[in-house]
Amino acid sequence: MQRFAGRRGLVTGAAGGIGRAVAELLAAEGASLVVADVDVDGLGVTVGRIAATGGRAAARPVDLAVAAEARRLCEAAGDRLGGLDLVCNAAGVLGPVAPLTEYPEDAFDLVHAVNTRAVWLVVKHAAPLLRAAGGGAIVNVASTAGLGAAPQLAGYGASKHAVIGLTRTAAVELAPDGIRVNAICPGPIETGMMAEAERGYALPTRVRRTRPSAAPSRSPATAGRPRSPSSPPSSSPTAPRTSPVASTRSTAG
Which of 4, 120, 156, 201 is an active site residue? Predict the structure, then answer.
């Protein structure tokens, strides 16, 4: 029996990594989905993979760095699916790998716009739809970087701490409406974002932008707490292994 048969879901950051994996699993378990990301090509791949296994998903390109996009996304998802029962906020960006004292202000603002503000706005605008459906579930993707220090990832680490705090508040406020709100805190996972973090720590310049000549990646996985440039590789949960995955410009994690 499919656990999510008849359920309607929205997944952000679905062009790859954690967001794609969540979307594929929900669809395999019977949910009808709207999948969202800034990476249009990646979204197409996700929708194609879901369709190939008999699932149902519609792509919705979105740039969650733009505040108004979250409201439009939730409205479009509700219209497309006839309501919402499930939401997974997996969209996120890594931002630069740089010492705290040299971290660029514009990058800090962008990381928080996508990783924190967009999570809040999706919860804000999705909650009335879940309430109208009689309740539902929201899962926000945080990170182990939100549970402790994240050296040279000031923007990313702070944003994931904020996601955890926001989730706690939302869980209390929305519980009377039958809406469960939880956060998950993945450690290092071999995705595009993990590869970005490793490249950032390996570069010799003091301020290491993950993608110097392009817009910051919106790749789906959380980076956890990458090792410092002087530390050797480790198999511990808080130190990444070398990842062969190339960076993607998608919105997740």
Answer: 156
